[in-house]
Write a structure and sequence with these properties.
The protein is an alpha/beta fold and about 250 residues long. About 30% of the residues lie in helices and about 25% in strands.
């Protein structure tokens, strides 16, 4: 796949940017992938840069639409508020959104308070263990379908989850490792559990049913990984804690 616009079929362009403007949905709650320019409030970050590249290849202008949480971004797909969205690929979201393969992965693990008996990931899923977690995050959706015994204490956003963890003296805080590093620094004696319970697959989504558009996006994601564009974009934004996702091989089979 080249980096020009000639590879884009009319059908793909019409499905990805049906208004002639590429409307890109962003999860502004993920500080690894999105942020704002302090002076102007304009969006910036890895997802923004990749969204601009996609618009360039399509040959259309771009508009960014920010959402405070990934759940709100995912829900907006049901009423056509955006054309492509940068968010974690989770089965619960797949009924409304077709996802590409991941372009980056982010480890998710736990923070535990001082004196906690929890030492390993497996220690968390036990009766009576209470876990603070941002609702409708990709890793909340993962834990909701995989935990057998522990209780998820949901709240809106990472800041609120940390406050709930501290104020209610919960047993663990679930989060993305780079975010937990910041929370750990604010809570003396706390520990980040080694390893991960999942790696959030950050992908590009398009509302379901846009077959030609979904095909082009899958090819786009494989190309930007293979060409090194994702790695360069991570470096240019100075982000730590992200891993470029592996190539999937033939995107037609994904």
């Amino acid at each position: 796949m080249s980096t020009g616009t000639t590879d884009v079929t009319p059908a793909a362009r019409a499905e990805i940017a049906p208004t002639g403007m590429l409307r890109v949905g962003l999860n502004m709650g993920n500080f690894l992938l999105t942020g704002k320019v302090p002076e102007t409030g304009e969006p910036r970050g890895i997802a923004v840069d990749l969204g601009r590249e996609l618009a360039r290849r399509l040959g259309v202008p771009v508009e960014f639409i920010g959402y405070p949480t990934p759940g709100e971004l995912a829900e907006a797909a049901t009423f056509g508020a955006w054309d492509v969205g940068f968010l974690g690929a989770e089965p619960q979201r797949a009924k409304d959104i077709d996802f590409t393969a991941a372009y980056v992965e982010i480890e998710a693990t736990y923070l535990v308070p001082s004196g906690s008996p929890i030492r390993e990931i497996a220690d968390v899923d036990r009766p009576g263990v209470r876990i603070a977690i941002p609702e409708k995050s990709a890793y909340e959706l993962y834990l909701a379908r995989t935990l057998k015994h522990a209780n998820l204490m949901r709240t809106k956003g990472g800041d609120a989850a940390f406050k709930l963890f501290v104020d209610d003296k919960l047993d663990a805080l679930a989060g993305l490792r780079p975010r937990l590093v910041k929370d750990h620094a604010k809570l003396p004696g706390s520990r980040i559990i080694y390893g991960r319970f999942t790696a959030v697959q950050q992908a590009i989504g398009i509302p379901r049913g846009r077959v030609a558009g979904a095909k082009y996006l899958r090819e786009f994601v494989e190309d930007i990984k293979a060409s090194g564009l994702v790695a360069r974009t991570i470096d240019q934004n100075g982000v730590r804690g992200l891993t470029v996702a592996p190539l999937t091989g033939d995107p037609e089979k994904k």
